[in-house]
Amino acid sequence: MSEAAIEARGLVREFKKGPRAVDGIDLTVAPGEVYGFLGPNGAGKSTTVHMLTTLLPPTAGTARVAGYDVVQEGPEVRAAIGAALQDAALDPFLTGREHMRLQTTLHGMRGEEGRERASALLERVGLIQAADRKVGGYSGGMKRRLDLALALVHRPRILFLDEPTTGLDPQSRTALWEEVQRLAGDRGVTVFLTTQYLEEADVLADRVGIIDNGRIVAEGTPETLKGEIGRPSVEATPADSADLGRMKGVLARFGESVAGSPKAATVRLSGGDAQLADVVRALDAEDIKLLDLQLHAPTLDDVFLAKTGRSLEGAAEEEEEDDDAGDPAGDGSRKAEAIAA
Amino acid sequence: MSGLAVQVGALARRSIVRTLRQPAMVVPSLLFPLMLLSINSSGLDSATRLPGFPTDSYFQFALAIAFVQGALFSANSAGTNVANDIESGFMNRLALTPLRRVALMMGQLAGILALGLIQALTFLLVGWAFGAGFEAGLPGALLIVLLSLLISLAFGCIGAFVALRSGSGEAVQGVFPLFFAALFLSSMSLPRDLIESDWFRTVADWNPVSYMLEGIRSLMIVGWDAEALALGFGCAGVLALLALVAASSALRTRMVRT
Questions:
Q1: Does the beta-carbon distance from B6 to A110 stay under 8 Å?
Q2: Pairwise CB contact (< 8 Å): B97 & A106
Q3: Chain B residues with CB-CB distance to A77 below 8 A
Q4: Considering the entire predicted model, what is its pTM?
């Protein structure tokens, strides 16, 4: 496949009586690439995924997935993609194996072929022992793994994972990351992954698109993006908490203050990590004793902060509050409206 | 087997399995009609002494209520199942497969019919065990099952329609009492010509539930009454058709994939 696996130009989605959830997105994902779509809740990640997976028609713009137009060639797109959407969409009254059998049948695999494919995928995601238990009794991690197995039934070339590890314990999260890496590495599957976890994007993604308020505000490899910010931060904790005010004053000479521990002074070094020695000397000159001193390399959160003026975690909290206000029932009716619109 | 038949089969199996695995859905739909039957037949037995009452057993008269009341639970069952699929995202999962919408609708209806069949057979057995007569014999009993299934289908499609339009299990639960109002404002407790209150009789005359009840009753009490059967099957059939068209249209809107 020489053309892009996913290509969107000027993609827009507006909801009736609602905001412009996606506001002119341009993106290109190469075949075999893991693309991390990073942003806070309500930024437009899931709406973008719904449009790219043909579940929601765009209001404007175009998108091609696996070479097919998402509006004109929906069935061809669906045949080429697998998707594990936000919240594992499973029937609690069916077993894992029954889910797999239903999915294989709907994808046209009958009899022995369907049974073998189901068993192979259950084995692969480590659910063969639990295959005949009802899904209602599965843990969050097991549900997510089954969700992934279901998305892989028809051997898709492109996989959409919408916040696949939200709510999972660290062990389950790591297991899922390994599976995604295996899919992309060994099998050349293109993965479009939405996440609000910086670490997840950092670990998994070849390239990252950062989305905020429906717009992509930064795009590149995690290293490039962090390199663009380029400035590490230093976090200094005084031995005597009474010195914290004076310490902040000293550190302010070396860069702008950023969020950090309340017991420490944290600044982004305007002159880079070479300034660290100067910081120590300045503190020594003021006779401020240090309890701890840490130099932090730039993170994707720093990139988000630099591009939007907010930290990703802070933005997530704000968006959650906005969501609550706009969705008083708290039942995702805005999403339901989106699907029905 | 064609692709459509395979899809319908797979979804019907899922619908039946998940219905039968929810005792909270199956048991009340059997228990409550039997409780109402028990209360009515012991409390209203003196109504059989009214001139023109068609039978001397109120149990036999009231047995038809159980079939229709059980069918009303289909609306709740179908609606709740569909709403759960929407709320959990399962509908989106199905939408991403090469599934045809008509297969999804038919598969969902299979679950309604399975529950309806269990209900109808249970009420027939209870009636037979407690001495209710079936004037139309075994063929009549089979026709009672058929009419019950058609009524279940009609109310099940209404439940599915509400769920598909609203996407909410709460909305389905909210509509459920209206079905019971329709049952109580029918010829449930008395033949229409014995209802004294004019407004009640008028409502019962216009209420299709009256004719569904009377269709079932005729096979138990009268024998083969062509008019009652035509009206019973006609009302249930038209309601089922209208509800099916409405539910299919709502599904088209809900499953908006390109």
A1: yes
A2: yes
A3: 258
A4: 0.80
Residues 6+ apart with CB under 8 A from B181: none
Residue from B97, B172, B249 whose CB has the most chain A CBs within 10 Å, to mutate: B97
* ipTM summary value: 0.84
Instruction: Please report whether residue A306 resides in a domain.
Output: no
At A335 the pLDDT is: 37
Question: Which residue shows structure tokens 């061809």?
Answer: A76
pLDDT, tens digit, 9 for 90 and up, residues A148-161: 999 999 999 999 99
A106 vs chain B: nearest CA distance in angstroms? 6
Q: Give the model confidence (pLDDT) of B213-234 as tens digits.
A: 999 999 999 999 999 999 999 9
Distance from CA of B24 to the nearest CA of A (A): 12
Secondary structure class of A68 (helix, strand, coil)? strand
Q: Mean pLDDT, consecutive 10-residue segments, chain B of 258 residues?
A: 84 91 90 93 89 92 95 88 91 91 89 91 95 91 96 94 92 89 94 93 96 96 95 97 95 84
Distance between CA atoms of residues B228 and A32, nearest Å = 67
Does A85 contact chain B (CB < 8 Å)? yes
What is the C-alpha radius of gyration for chain A, rounded to an integer number of angstroms?
23
Domain that holds residue B145: 3-254
Residues A146, A58 within the same domain: yes
What is the number of structural domains in chain B?
Answer: 1
Chain A residues near residue B98 by CB distance under 8 angstroms: 75, 78-79, 106-108
| Shared domain check, A171 and A218 | yes
| Identity of the residue in A75, A336, A339 whose CB atom sits nearest the CB atom of B98 | A75
Collect all residues with Cβ–Cβ distance below 8 Å to A224 and sequence separation of at least 6: none
d(CA A24, CA A265): 39
Instruction: Tell me the three state secondary structure of residue A11.
Output: strand
Domain region containing A253 = 231-297
Q: Residue A93, Cβ neighbours under 10 Å: how many?
A: 19
Would A12 be classed as within a structural domain? yes
Cβ of B254 within 8 Å of Cβ of A56? The answer is no
Inter-chain CB proximity A54 and B257 less than 8 Å: yes
Chain A hits for B7, CB-CB cut-off 8 Å, are 105-106
Render pLDDT for A311-328 as a digit per residue (tens, 0 to 9): 666 555 555 444 443 333
